[in-house]
Amino acid sequence: MDVPLCTSPEDPLYQKYVSLVKTNIRDIYADRPARKGKSSHLWPGPATSTPITLDMFGDLLPTSGPVAAAAERERVLGTYSVKPGTVLFDRTLWTRNAAGERVDFLGETAACDLLLVMGTSLSGLTIDIIAHAAGQLGKPRIVFDMTDAPVRSMQQQSSWSAGRDVHLQSPLDVSVLEILSAMGWLQQLVDFLPHICLRSLLALQQFVRAKGTEADGSALNEAVEAAIDIERKREKHFYGDEPADEPAQL
Fold first, then answer.
1. Domain regions of the chain by residue span
2. Which InterPro entries match (predicted)?
């Protein structure tokens, strides 16, 4: 079925999927410390993985489910229908967004005013097409990366322009915070603090303290400190007493 089975974490179908992942998918990082990827310390994982099939959802499937499940059973062994609603490593990009609307990523690239390149070295993954297409269309790009690998890739494939494109070669948290501060948007982060990881919260705390009154430091810093306390307690559930990495120094 080329449609989402559900889109809400509260949906019983989603809850069933979570349960199936826990009982059927092996933790490939089980030999690592918790902060390096291990998740099975919270729930025992199986020694080997078992494909999650539509049949496993039983009567939770929509009306078209039984037909799709029957078709799935008749396919070649190793072909299955159930996938998470994310772009997995080097898979094709979404043709629909999370709201179910059609997405034309190349069309949106052509219409954009500025492209931000984060979290990729542009080493040949499918998603890199967007960055290279933007360059070929003459769109300005900002590259956030500690290395020059993305820039070198752009130079080789999509006409990097020193007069148009920018490389912010520093920790991502620091670069983004500098931009938010310069645009007067730093205070808006208060609404997003519950969604920010501990390492980024610590970087934000360090940044606000360094800026002082310029960033309305006292009120924002109090909110950040409260968020850090909450996140530390939450992380303790997942990681025990393993220390968190310290943020990069400003």
1. 12-74, 105-168, 172-239
2. DHS-like_NAD/FAD-binding_dom
